[in-house]
Amino acid sequence: MRKSFILFILASVVFLLPACSQNDSKKIASMNTEAKIKKSESEWKKELTPVQYHVLREKGTERAFTGEYWDNHEKGVYYCAACHEKLFASDTKFESGTGWPSFYKPLADSSISINMDKSAGMVREEVVCSNCGGHLGHVFNDGPKPTGLRYCLNSASLDFKKEN
Q1: Catalytic site residue 152?
Q2: Can you give the pLDDT at residue 94?
Q3: What pLDDT was estimated at residue 38?
Q4: Residue 146: is the preceding peptide bond cis (ω within 30°)?
Q5: Distance from C-alpha of 161 to C-alpha of 153, rounded to nearest angstrom
Q6: CA 53: distance to chain centroid?
Q7: In degrees, to the nearest 5, what angle opens at C-alpha 155 toward C-alphas 108 and 23?
Q8: Mean pLDDT by 10 residues, the chain (164 residues)
Q9: Cβ(134)–Cβ(57) under 8 Å?
Q10: Cβ contacts of residue 13 below 8 Å, gap of 6+?
Q11: pTM as predicted
Q12: How far apart are CA 132 and CA 50, in angstroms?
């Protein structure tokens, strides 16, 4: 009985662990990077709108198809709404059909960090701004080539600057 239980646990762990691919090694390298900007929650509340605060500081999620940028097709750069760090370029944005802005790669691997998120009864990879630690969204392994990644972000966590 005990041996079969241990085998069951080991099989479950192996099944639940994602296969490590070349894309995962980049994400793992950027996990749990400590934010450079440190502010109190009262300072963030003064600087951000209530929706931005909820998403960026309380790890909230806006409803699908309601954010400002899910259907934005203009050329430009997406910045962190909290600290204005450059995060994603419009030429890496794609239509995922999810109702949130989706990108297949950040401008620089160092501009974001990936953390394990075990909330909502599931295990996901949370995307945060490396500069301020603000919650941006999640990354999934179902994106287009060349990376195969889908950075699914909240519009409230982003600012967009159009290219001229």
Answers
A1: yes
A2: 97
A3: 86
A4: yes
A5: 16
A6: 16
A7: 35
A8: 48 40 43 74 95 97 96 97 97 97 96 93 95 97 97 98 90
A9: yes
A10: none
A11: 0.80
A12: 17
- Position 54 scores a pLDDT of 97
The residue behind tokens 């994400």 is 27
Show the 3-state SS of the chain. CHHHHHHHHHHHHHHHCCCCCHHHHHHHHCECCCCCCCCCHHHHHHHCCHHHHHHHCCCCCCCCCCCCCCCCCCCEEEEECCCCCEEEEHHHEECCCCCCCEECCCCCHHHEEEEEECCCCCCEEEEEECCCCCEEEEEECCCCCCCCCEEEECHHHEEEEECC
Cα 48 to Cα 2, 35, 52, 86, 103, distances in angstroms: 54, 18, 6, 18, 24
Measured between alpha carbons, how far is 148 from 19 in angstroms, rounded to an integer? 14
The one catalytic residue in 80, 83, 132, 152 is: 152
Quickly tell me which residue has 């401008």 as its tokens.
107
**pLDDT value at position 2?**
54
pLDDT (0 to 100) of residue 19: 40
